[in-house]
Design goal:
With about 425 residues, the chain is an alpha/beta fold. The chain contains 19 helices and ten strands. The protein has helices at about 15, 50-55, 55-65, 70-75, 80-85, 90-100, 110-115, 150-160, 185-190, 205-215, 245, 265-270, 275-285, 305-320, 350-360, 365-380, 385-400, 405-410, 415; strands spanning about 15-20, 25, 40, 45, 130-135, 195, 225-230, 250-260, 290-300, 330-335. The strands form two sheets. It has an eight-stranded mixed sheet with strand order 2-1-5-6-7-8-9-10. A two-stranded antiparallel sheet has the order 3-4. A hairpin with a 5-residue loop joins β1 and β2. The chain is globular, with a radius of gyration of 21 Å. It starts with 12 loop residues before the first helix and ends with a helix.
Length: about 425
């Protein structure tokens, strides 16, 4: 029997997780780069989860994780490979793996089943977790580093400022597709975790329909509910009401609160959010039964020098309510693809400033995270062309929104004035 810890570069996601993307094309993980979604779009619509699972492409992809890697994982797993290049102990892959092999891994009881499974032909699925990225791009925020596929508000802004947008958003910047929840019954019946994302997760009717289906099937009490939210909206959208009415129907819950900075800086990047409203809703989330809260950030050109403030803010909450709040997470490295707000867009002098801050504020509790950030700043080369394009993008959005980058991040002034 294969042992997970003996495999050279193993990730459990392609074996025990499936993700439904917002164009209704299945894939195995949320951080993959360059997923060949068009290859799974046929004349009659997208391939089903099982069709993708048993495709030659997925068989080859899974095989690479049993054999130490290969060309498919080199391309699709770019973010994790980049993370591990600079910090061998931190990446999405390692987080997922630790859930099975870590001393306190939350999926340890399923480790043997997964080890048995990878020795089969894997034709029958073993889905323990399911991430549903609802086919609805509505979001009330327009975060600088986001995409129109994930934010209708950003799509609308991109159209207004003359940014190139995909053909499907040329006429309608908000796209919502009716989904048939009954097709997910074979997946839901065996889950230990259901993760709902967006758009803005709590404002999408499809997410409430998915929760309704799990409740109606009588399986919601066997699974953890994981909700990723910007914590600015809590509408009553489902037959049971709002998120506060739904959570009690599940075994337990984790609220992943997406932020970029702590306080007012967050309002600039995740425009037009209000920090006071976010913290008001976090306080309400903390009172939900069997619920933990995780603050999660991206690592981008505008956040990397300020993540120590997030650490300090979350540590203060943990001190008050250690049973409610988890350590903050900096898992999402903005990197590759069409991303502009990457660490490689930071010029050398600002890097030095950010490194000084990291070394000054690095605490033993978060030493791995801070050293990872320092390595990004030290090792990732400066891309002047990308920097120039990012500054142009910042200036265009500031003009449209009535904001000014340097009011919040003054260190960028010499570069902002050149645009």
């Amino acid at each position: 029997m294969s042992k997970l810890k003996d495999l050279e570069w193993f990730c459990p996601q392609p074996f025990m997780n499936t993700l439904m993307s917002n164009n209704l094309v299945p894939q195995s993980c949320c951080v993959l780069q360059g997923w060949p979604g068009d290859d799974f779009l046929g004349d009659t619509g997208p391939a089903s989860i099982m069709e993708v699972h048993n495709s030659d492409f997925m068989k080859d992809f899974r095989k690479e994780f049993l054999n130490g890697g290969g060309p498919i994982s080199d391309k699709l797993c770019l973010v994790c490979k980049e993370q591990e290049k600079h910090s061998p102990t931190e990446s999405h892959r390692l987080v997922y793996l630790a859930k099975f092999v870590g001393e306190h891994g939350e999926y340890r009881e399923h480790t043997k089943a997964l080890e048995d499974y990878i020795d089969t032909d894997q034709s029958d699925p073993m889905y323990l977790t399911f991430e549903y990225n609802a086919p609805n791009n509505f979001c009330n925020l327009k975060c600088n580093m986001c995409s129109p596929q994930q934010s209708s508000t950003l799509a609308k802004e991109n159209k207004a400022i003359g940014e190139k947008i995909p053909n499907e958003w040329q006429q309608e910047t908000h796209i919502s597709i009716k989904d048939d929840m009954s097709k997910y019954e074979p997946i839901l019946k065996n889950l230990i975790e259901l993760k709902l994302v967006g758009g803005e997760t709590l404002a999408l009717p499809q997410n409430y329909e998915m929760m309704d289906k799990a409740i109606e099937m009588g399986v919601s009490k066997q699974m953890r509910l994981v909700l990723t939210t910007n914590a600015t909206l809590t509408p009553k959208m489902g037959k049971h009401g709002d998120v506060f009415d739904y959570v009690p129907h599940f075994k337990d819950c984790q609220m992943n609160v997406s932020i970029e900075c702590w306080g007012e800086k967050n309002n600039y990047i995740r425009f037009p959010s209000k920090w006071e409203k976010i913290m008001e809703n976090v306080e309400r989330f903390s009172k939900m039964p069997r619920t933990k809260i995780l603050f999660a950030t991206c690592v981008s050109s505008l956040t990397i020098g300020y993540l120590h403030e997030v650490a300090e803010g979350v540590d203060a909450l943990i001190e008050k309510q250690p049973d409610i709040f988890n350590d903050f997470a900096t898992g999402s490295l903005v990197h590759g693809g069409l991303n502009l707000y990457t660490v490689t867009a930071i010029p050398p002098d600002i890097r030095e400033l950010y490194l000084e801050r990291i070394y000054e504020h690095a605490t033993e509790r978060h030493i791995k995270t801070f050293m990872k950030l320092a390595n990004y700043l030290t090792d990732m080369p400066f891309d002047e062309s990308l920097h120039n394009r990012m500054m142009i993008d910042v200036a265009k959005r500031d003009k449209f929104r009535g904001t000014v980058l340097t009011d919040v991040f003054p260190e960028w002034k010499p570069y902002y004035e050149k645009v």
